[in-house]
């Protein structure tokens, strides 16, 4: 491993290129996570609701069952997770061949259409694959072949998945936020990005910062301005980068969110009451802070 790292240090461009290819391949799996994880979660919630009705409201459950009013779980097979079944065309159900699953290239070879029925394939698949590859390539250029790069790449995979899910479902799954929050604490036990006390305080402060804003907004307006997943995502960045980076992340995410939100209202005729996921803005701001947070803070302090 040391020999490989030494070789990559000598040829940084090769390391960046390999990182892009590897991350683009992972991006193909991230597309699966973005689509399937919410389905798996909804199925689990529905099963729990049905079990609750059956156990605590048996008469109501029997009536619903007799009248066939129980919501069907979904259109997917009984065995449905991140691995099985194999990916198929949503229209003709033809299994996608391995070489058609090549990240970015597979979509380009098919001309963005199913090989069997010629149904249009969404361009979001190669976009997420390219995005994942580009982000990790930038990490490789910034950190080089180090433990910081490896851990930053892992959390980047999770952030891309969470961004896609939040855009689709307005949801940040605990299955992603909580394990990676703990991974940040573990990494900083060894001082990879910051000291352990800073990481612990950062996780607490990150959660409470948005939690406080949530309840203040709710008390003033009677409305919920954001979801609990946003609190946990901010806690995740506090655990990875320390409490010192939280003001920068909050500022950057608010600026990006305001610009995009106003643009959507002006150019897409969205109403002011239309919900907009805040998670992607936190993810982008936190990712920027992971690479250039210290430089940005130093530049700002130098201007005072």
Automatic annotation (TrEMBL):
Superkingdom of origin organism: Bacteria
Main function: Plays an essential role in type IV pili and type II pseudopili formation by proteolytically removing the leader sequence from substrate proteins and subsequently monomethylating the alpha-amino group of the newly exposed N-terminal phenylalanine.
InterPro entries found in the cross-reference section: Peptidase_A24A_bac, Prepilin_IV_endopep_pep, Prepilin_pept_A24_N, Prepilin_peptidase/N-MTase
This protein's record includes keyword Lipid biosynthesis: no
Compartments (UniProt record): Cell inner membrane; Cell membrane
Organism: Shewanella avicenniae
EC number per UniProt: 2.1.1.-, 3.4.23.43
Segments crossing the lipid bilayer: 14-35, 149-167, 176-193, 199-221, 233-266, 278-301
Family to which this protein belongs: Belongs to the peptidase A24 family.
Annotated membrane topology: Multi-pass membrane protein
Keyword Signal: no
Catalytic activity entry: Typically cleaves a -Gly-|-Phe- bond to release an N-terminal, basic peptide of 5-8 residues from type IV prepilin, and then N-methylates the new N-terminal amino group, the methyl donor being S-adenosyl-L-methionine
Domain Prepilin peptidase A24 N-terminal residue range list: 21-143
Keywords: Cell inner membrane, Cell membrane, Hydrolase, Membrane, Methyltransferase, Multifunctional enzyme, Protease, Transferase, Transmembrane, Transmembrane helix
UniProt domain Prepilin type IV endopeptidase peptidase: residue ranges: 154-262
Protein name per Swiss-Prot or TrEMBL: Prepilin leader peptidase/N-methyltransferase
Major place of residence: membrane
């Amino acid at each position: 491993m040391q020999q490989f790292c030494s070789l990559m240090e000598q040829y940084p461009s090769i390391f960046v290129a390999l990182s892009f290819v590897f991350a683009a391949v992972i991006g193909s799996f991230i597309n699966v996570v973005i689509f399937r994880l919410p389905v798996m979660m909804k199925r689990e919630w529905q099963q729990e609701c049905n079990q609750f009705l059956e156990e605590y409201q048996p008469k109501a459950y029997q009536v619903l069952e007799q009248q066939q009013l129980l919501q069907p779980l979904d259109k997917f097979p009984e065995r449905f997770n991140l691995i099985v079944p194999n990916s198929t065309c949503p229209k003709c159900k033809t299994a996608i061949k391995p070489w058609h699953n090549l990240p970015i290239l597979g979509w380009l070879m098919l001309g963005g259409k199913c090989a069997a029925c010629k149904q249009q394939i969404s361009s979001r698949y190669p976009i997420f694959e390219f995005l994942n590859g580009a982000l990790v390539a930038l990490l490789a250029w910034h950190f080089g072949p180090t433990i910081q790069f490896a851990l930053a790449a892992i959390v980047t995979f999770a952030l891309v998945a969470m961004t896609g899910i939040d855009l689709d479902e307005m949801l940040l799954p605990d299955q992603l936020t909580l394990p990676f929050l703990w991974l940040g604490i573990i990494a900083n036990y060894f001082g990879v990005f910051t000291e352990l006390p800073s990481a612990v305080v950062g996780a607490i402060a990150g959660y409470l910062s948005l939690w406080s804003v949530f309840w203040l907004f709710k008390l003033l307006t009677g409305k919920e301005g954001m979801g609990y997943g946003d609190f946990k995502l901010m806690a995740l960045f506090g655990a990875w980068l320390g409490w010192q980076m939280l003001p920068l992340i909050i500022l950057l995410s608010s600026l990006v969110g305001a610009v995009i939100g106003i643009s959507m209202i002006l150019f897409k005729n969205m109403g002011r009451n239309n919900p907009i996921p805040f998670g992607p803005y936190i993810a982008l701001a936190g990712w920027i802070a992971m690479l250039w947070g210290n430089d940005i803070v130093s530049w700002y302090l130098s201007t005072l």
